Amino acid sequence: MPSLKTNFIYNFILTGSNYLMALAVFPYISRVLGPENVGIVNFVDSTIDYFIMLSTMGMMFVGVREIASAKNNPERLSSTFSGLFIVNLIFTILSLLALGTAYIFIPALSKYPEMVFIGVIKLIFKFLLIEWFFLGLEDFKYISIRSLIIKLIFVIGVFVWVRQPSDYEKYYILLVGILVAGAIANWEYGRKKIKFIFNNSSWKSHIRPFLYITSYTLCVNMYNSFNVMFLGIATNETEVGYYTTALKMFAVIIAFYYAFTGVALPRMSALLSEKNIDEFINLIHRTTNTLIALSIPIIISGICLAPQIIFIIGGPKFNGSIIPMILIFPLLIITGYNKILIDQIMMPYKKDKILMRNAAISAIITIVLNILLAKSLGAVGTAIVWIGAEITLLILSMKTVVNLLPIKFPIYDLIKQVIIYIPMGICLWYMGHLINNNYIHFAVGALFTAIYFIIIQYKYIKTPDVNNMIKKFTSIRHIDNKAV
């Protein structure tokens, strides 16, 4: 079984490749296709993605969890896979019917029949991708290598075949082709591991968890997307621009953190299935300590360098994004610990109904806070709304977990590390009086943060898993920790 560190590296590379692909393709596509045709592709694709979310969202949690629990028993693995596949098929058919209804009754969608047909292919092959099966098996090496190869072909294809504004359909075909190629590769690679066993009990038991997790995911996505929508309704496009710009750096950082939690879910499910509670709890402590060690310097440097980050991302016209970004950065620790409680404890323990309830309560809090704050405070108010929703979800998650395991958040370690990094924050703030160029200020500040972080970690805090990463990337010796 590969180590968590190895799986994380593969998933980290995969996450990074998604951003690199976007950086490589989007500037070219935006210039070749133009705003209108890019808008057509995004409109149709976003609509299709909504129906994909309805058909497969729960599977990325339930599927991974159940496959991870059954992977050491071939017969149980085949039965579990077959049952999950049937459930996914049922919801995919329902989503196709819902999409067909939307196509008939929504004129804006029926204007693009060829694009919608391509989108239908995307929906079908998203179901056939069975990515949850390989995630549950922890085969992150295969997933990463396959994805990198297909995305490289996609990037080449874009530059070869998309040459004029009318090529927007070709561009969408190439986008959908990523899924089609991935699904074909997965079935070819996994055919020796997959055996269908059809019986009523193999799929009916998965229906309820699938519905609970899908509802949970919809609630979480709703209170994230609802914030932007409500802000636009309550204020104006400028405030929406401030808020969404403030989210950009946070979204990139949290995506790389999710690359780790994504590899932890199958491992935690397997440990719980094996009743290895001691290692289960040990892994939670390790991931929590790693979260604190990594997030505190990022939060403090992010707050201190927020004006420079916003200037680099959006330019001088986006100064209204600075305060929302400062407010949002502490969510790294809040959202990060939430992911540990949910993905590593509540999901493996199958507390799906409670997850759905907690997310629904957070969604209600989001709606109430938006009504109270969005109109009067604009982007700043929406940032506060998001903080309130995440804190609500965290409190509810902690209340659930305390009844499952003897786990407490290491608040004293958090306070200690905040104190240790305060001098770094003061230095970063003082740089603003010495360096007038925002680009140089950010570059020097980021370098100073990295050096300060490495010294503090290696000499004082000494978080084992973080020091392993420092050893790997900076060749620092004398740290010898075993992989999971």
TrEMBL record:
The chain crosses the membrane at residues 12-30, 50-68, 80-109, 115-136, 148-165, 171-189, 210-234, 240-260, 291-315, 321-342, 354-373, 379-402, 414-432, 438-461. It is a multi-pass membrane protein. Keywords: Cell membrane, Membrane, Transmembrane, Transmembrane helix. GO terms for cellular component: plasma membrane. The keyword Transmembrane helix applies. InterPro entries: Poly_Biosynth_Transport (IPR050833), Polysacc_synth (IPR002797). The keyword Transmembrane applies. It comes from the Bacteria. Its main location: membrane. It is found in: Cell membrane. This is Flippase. It comes from Muribaculum intestinale.
